[in-house]
Amino acid sequence: MLTRFIIYTRVSTDKQAIEGTSLETQEERCRLTISARFGEILPSQIEVIQDAGASGASLNRNGIKRVLSLVERGKVDYLVFFALDRLSRKQLDLLNMLKIFQDKKVKIISVNEPALDTSNPMGNFYISLISSIAELERETIKERVTRGLRKIQEQGRFAGGVVPFGYTPDKLAEGGLQIVDTEASIIRSIFYYRDRKKWGYLRIANRLNERGFTKRDTKSWTAKAIQGILRNRSFYQGKEALHSNQPKTVHPKII
Predict the structure, then answer these.
(1) Is 12 a catalytic residue?
(2) Where do runs of H (alpha helix) occur along 20-120?
(3) Given 12, 22, 55, 189, the catalytic residue
(4) Element (H, E) at 110
(5) Closest Cα to residue 109, out of 84, 134, 145, 139?
(6) Which of 76, 100, 213, 223 would you call most buried, defined as having the most Cβ atoms within 10 angstroms of its Cβ?
(7) Burial 3-19 (b: 16+ CB within 10 A, else e)
(8) For the segment 178-222, what is each residue's pLDDT rounded down to a tens digit?
(9) Domains of the chain by start residue, with CATH
């Protein structure tokens, strides 16, 4: 089977064209590199993919999306580009892409960075080193997020997830939650019907529906939904956190 090449080029501004890194210049340099390395190549072996006027700060680009799609489907042998920053200017995105190329056994050649050539042992070592850095970066980020979440929990603040009915998230509010008055009045009605009138779940649900009250998703109240609210009595009293692994809470109470 013939070797399949992709030439990827990108410019984000007109200034780059003036400075000599236009799409045409990048493509020409890539073609010359392929010819010097592999000799005569059929036109059908090369596909040129471009991102014109696209920032390297995001992977939300049609060109790079197509490159990654072809790589994932095993349609690429070599990816050739002018410089590494043509792929992405964000370090984590770049490292993740290089890991994908390595996993899919796609060799990469950077015209402007001779060391970045995975068709030789030194280039493979370089990519392995970069991939190790990427893994370390991912673990570091994961650790930071976990540590930040633990700190939020220790402070008794809302730690994320589905926001309980009756509240809305607010970083500036006490406990990270702010009471929604319209929903809070429904919560108080539910506990009133249960505690004072001794009604069952279904009767409470029917009464709320009769009064035109709906859940947050605009659906009708059900016995199961009422049961879920009543089970969180201590939470709505401001005595316990929503999550069992949270030692304390400082959110405002509704009942």
Answers:
(1) yes
(2) 23-38, 62-72, 91-103
(3) 12
(4) strand 107-110
(5) 84
(6) 76
(7) ebbbbbbbbbeeebeee
(8) 899 999 999 999 999 999 999 999 999 999 999 999 998 889 999
(9) 5-139 (3.40.50.1390), 158-236 (no CATH)
